[in-house]
Amino acid sequence: MKKSGFWLIYLLLLIAQFLLSTYANFTPYVMVTLLPVMVLCIPIRVGTTLAMLIAFASGWAVDALSEGLLGLNALALVPVAFARDGIIRLIFGGELFARKEDFSVHRSGFWKVAMAIVLSVALFLLVYIWADGAGTRPFAFNALRFAGSLAASTALSFLAIDPLAPDSRK
User: Fold this and answer.
1) Looking at the predicted structure, is the pLDDT value of residue 168 above 70?
2) Closest by alpha carbon to 170, among 76, 104, 95?
3) CA distance 106 to 81
4) Are 164 and 34 in contact (CB under 8 A)?
5) DSSP class per residue in 10-68
């Protein structure tokens, strides 16, 4: 996929995240987010530092335009960008970096992509829920929020992964 095509889809999904954050808060137990999978799919050619800056800007924009607590998404999204290369190396292997090619569901397989999505969403949610609760909420509430949010966000991420990480052989 051309660079401009990826960034256009990224921007459209960022707008979708604004809408999700504004209108999809039905319960305090479930938070739906696309941000971790968006950061996970940033092209490998983009270095870690730039990916962290993109993640910070994306999280800050969502915080500023839709949610009340400024900096919470940015705080939780930067570690996902920092761990992005490690997650990709762990799940898909180092050959993607050697060939400088991005992963896709068709090339890498559904289960590998699913594991990468779950790891990135789980890291995001751990930081987000820890920072949001700040020791004021009981463990049971935070555990239920983590489980519900992980299930909902992972399911929604599967809809976003195909446009973000298409098969380049098509």
Assistant:
1) no
2) 104
3) 23
4) no
5) HHHHHHHHHHHHHH----TT-----HHHHHHTS-TTS-HHHHHHHHHHHHHHHHHHT-S
What's the rounded Cα separation, in Å, for the pair 19 and 14?
A: 9
Q: How many domains is the chain partitioned into structurally?
A: 1
- Chain centre distance of CA 36: 1
CA 169, CA 103: separation in Å to the nearest integer? 11
pTM: 0.91
What is the CA angle 96-51-33, rounded to 5? Answer: 100
Inside any domain, residue 169: no
Residue 142 lies in a domain: yes
Where residue 36 falls among pLDDT bands split at 50, 70, 90? Answer: very high
* Residue range(s) defining the domain that contains residue 154: 3-164
Cα–Cα distances (Å) from 79 to 104, 108, 113, in that order, read 22, 24, 19
Return the structure tokens found at 138. Answer: 């009981």
